TrEMBL record:
Pfam families for this protein: Acetyltransf_3
Official protein name in the record: RimJ/RimL family protein N-acetyltransferase
Source organism: Kaistia dalseonensis
InterPro entries per UniProt: Acyl_CoA_acyltransferase, GNAT_dom, N-acetyltransferase
Residues covered by the N-acetyltransferase domain: 22-180
Amino acid sequence: MRDDASEETSEGEERRLLTRRLILRPPGIQDAAALAAAIDNPRVAMNLVTVPYPYRRTDAEIWIERERSVEDAPGASHIAISRNQGGLVGAGFHRPSTVWPDGFELSFWVAERFWGQGFGTEIAHAVIDDAFVRGGVMRLICAIRVTNGSARRVVEKCGFQFRDTGMVRSIATRGAVPVERFVLERRVWQSLKAWGAERVMQDFGPARIVEGSANDVDESSAA
């Protein structure tokens, strides 16, 4: 963490995204308790192959510190906060792939109490737009557990195309799990935006990047 609190706040503001119902912003140490509470749920953790289970506050703090330390690297991480009620809804991020050297991996999740309300699509769409618009990404890859039908529906609605199947190591299950890999090329995303063919753009509208004062948005603490 940086010692200069004003610098940290300013950088966080520059990375915020707004959707109809959410504020997406970089994680801060104040979010550790809320992140731990949401992910320390087997129905959430077992679908996220890079997190341990049980998931403790120290795990959240380690992840936050790591994400803050690579802010200047390619990719970005955002937690999603409810604009109306405050509180953590989920998270989404894109980072360079360790498997696909010419692509970025997309990940997203939603806390269980917000399931079935379209938040997964809203988070994914915002992160995808951020990756292609500001990140200059050419290709996004998303690996989804074969048992996670809701996540598969989200990426398909966002324009991802099925690529192949495989096995990945899951920290939560302490073993390998089968996944389906989906790919979204920049040219396909551009076509969807131009044609208006992606329904989520009608439902939620494009994410808006916010660069300004924290007073622009009334944001409650997620912790």
